[in-house]
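To fix ideas, we reproduce below a protein record of this kind.
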Amino acid sequence: MHPATLSEWGAGGFLIASYHAPTTIPSHAHFPLQLSLPISGSWLHTFGTATSTILTPGMAALIPPGDMHGTRGLAAGELITINAELEWCEEHCDLAAPALRDTKRRAGNAAHLQPLLAHASELLGEHQPDELYIASVGLTTTLGVIHAFGLRARPSTRIRLSVPLRRVTRWVDEHLGDRITLPTLARVAGCSQWHLIRLFNAGLDTSPARYVVARRLERARQLLRTPGADIAEVALRCGFSSQSHFTRTFARAFGQSPGAYRSKRSTL
């Protein structure tokens, strides 16, 4: 398996990454909404454990938060992924909409976005762009895919998550460095542990435990992009029990160790 070769830029609630084949992104899940958009080459994209499709330039794949997915380059080329953070999604998307869980609507035509993505690929590869440009590309592309797939964007409205679940997800983001238990989350939500599990399954299609781990990993990636980031300190700040536990979990999710990820970022 070829490790993922990537560059990343983040701003305004969006994280844009560029992968170059041959590369394999192991099956994993996280909690931003993600788009996968080939610039060149062909890419085998998997949903869950049994569904896959081949993505070529002019196509896009949409991955709802919490869904297992992976990608493998089949020919030399470039793939851009865009992650929209949960806070942005809460404002603009209905993450509980049944259409987002329909695997037949996960990949489709997005040819109208190809000129924008080609320009972004060229500019991102030449120098470090400003944050406004990164956020603009992320916003334009995400809204473009949502509309192209027939999924309505909702400006200035909140996600249809229950109030207890929204309260818990925000509390988790504020306490990622702490020990987080199911009884604690249930107290924050003001409901029983069993009901909280049902809320997570209905609203985000995942369990509380998987959600917490995914948010810790996303926070860790953000911290590792900081020059001079110390891996042991990142592990502690993100709530992992030890550096070795953090390293194993990170490598299983992203196909590379925290040290390799940090080293790659330091060369950008």
Q: What stands out?
A: Residues 155-159 have pLDDT under 50 and may be disordered. The chain has two domains: 6-148, 163-266. The chain is about 45% helix and 20% strand. Residues 116 and 122 are 10 Å apart (CA to CA).
